[in-house]
């Protein structure tokens, strides 16, 4: 039966010697046969198989040595197993446009001495592809446009010594393994390669002195992981521009040295992305415009040495984001205009070197943000125009030379702290708005710019305060007092008044009794602790109007309404000489002298007293405004 037939030996040599047409006709007549070249010695004239067809029963070239360039261009293999394992190609091999069936393709342990290896536009039928431990020699290796619809592709332990290794437009759907692979040429291309639903594993791979391109590649589907752990990129530029990662992405322990590294516009999947213990040395690193997806993000213990590092305009998703214990040696660190939507963001114990650090125009929507125990060396750190949507922000026990935290929008932040920090030159908070009382207690340097800085005491209605507003954080008293002290030492009278008002509000109902707290509340309402001139003016006008209405209804004589208004106004300026005359005349004009009740004098007295208080508050506001 044809399904059991094995073509080999002299019969094989004879059929092959009759040429391609006779061969292909025999294959059509024996579609399920097997063909074995094993133990066959091929001479240099027998290496051309262009256009040949092979049956479904399996094709075996195992251990064959090809003395000349082997060519399988346009070959059609059947659905059986195809084995080229342990073959030796003296001058390269070409499988361009070949088409394989559903069986396994075994190219393992092959040795190519020289010459090009091409699998360009090859269509694999879905079986496993075994390229492990192949030595591809010094020629170029081309897999441009090769595809496999399912099945695993295993290149583990392979060695590429050619100048160019090109996997552009590759399309492999199953697991793809390059673990332990060595690339030792000049250029490695995976541009626009598509790795489907399986995992992609480059762990322990070595790229030595070659420029590496993964631009626009799709690495893993939603369920596929990208494993780039413990890779070494030595002396090479590495490009992951516009790469799309599927599931979990891991670059743990990888080393990028002596080259430029770009993840610009890369998009990570919805699982975690990890650069734990990764090292970037002697080259700029950019993650500009990256989308880190919805999973956890880790740059813990990551080292960036001797180069600029940029995450400008990147988006960090809702998972936790950690840069704890990361190290930045020389070069600037730029997060300008990045968006952090993470549950938490942490840079604890990180060390920044001689370059500047920029978080300018960043947007933070994290519940917890921590830069505790960070060290910023010679450069400045800037959060100018950053926006904090919510949560707690801590810069406790930080060491910095010059901090620029100007024009920040942090009105929704519940806690913002620089406690115990060591400031070398200055800390600038000018123009920033905080939804809490920023904590600058125990800072070693009072050289702090608070011009235009605004804080707020977090208060809530409390039954112990007769259901008036009461501070929720008793420490706000000491925090506001410290800010006031710094403003006074800087001769910033306006900010000193602002922080004094915060301290008074924080004390209300906490360190003061009910009566004193009520008076304090009235003082705050009427003039904002001497900061407002408009408020007492408005209250004075309201008082004149209210007493005018009262006089209008209680007067016993019929008069023009203007008389009651002038009488009320004169009683509101009792310190003026004409007011006494006007007030006395008004009493006679509005009331019957012979039967005037004494309580009228009490009403006038109360109006005079309120007027004196409000005029004092106006004078106090003028004095504070113009420092009279």
Q: Key terms for this structure?
A:
alpha/beta, 17-stranded parallel sheet, 9 helices, 18-stranded parallel sheet, 628 residues
Q: What's the helix and strand layout?
A:
Blueprint: E1 6-7, H1 9-17, H2 20-29, E2 34-36, E3 59-60, E4 65-66, E5 70-71, E6 82-83, E7 88-89, E8 93-94, E9 105-106, E10 111-112, E11 117-118, E12 123-124, E13 129-130, E14 141-142, E15 147-148, E16 153-154, E17 159-160, E18 164-166, E19 171-172, E20 176-177, E21 182-183, E22 187-189, E23 194-195, E24 200-201, E25 206-208, E26 211-213, E27 218-219, E28 226-227, E29 232-234, E30 238-239, E31 244-245, E32 249-250, E33 255-257, E34 261-262, E35 273-274, E36 279-281, E37 285-286, E38 297-298, E39 303-305, E40 309-310, E41 315-316, E42 321-322, E43 327-328, E44 333-334, E45 339-340, E46 344-346, E47 351-352, E48 357-358, E49 363-364, E50 368-370, E51 375-376, E52 380-382, E53 387-388, E54 392-394, E55 399-404, E56 409-410, E57 415-417, E58 422-428, E59 433-434, E60 448-449, E61 459-462, E62 468-471, H3 476-489, H4 493-507, H5 514-527, H6 534-554, H7 561-571, H8 577-590, H9 599-626
Parallel strand pairs: 1-2, 2-3, 3-6, 4-7, 5-8, 6-9, 7-10, 8-11, 9-13, 11-14, 12-15, 13-16, 14-18, 15-19, 16-20, 17-21, 18-22, 19-23, 20-24, 21-25, 22-26, 23-27, 24-28, 25-29, 26-30, 27-31, 28-32, 29-33, 30-34, 32-35, 33-36, 34-37, 35-38, 36-39, 37-40, 38-42, 39-43, 40-44, 41-45, 42-46, ...
Antiparallel strand pairs: 61-62
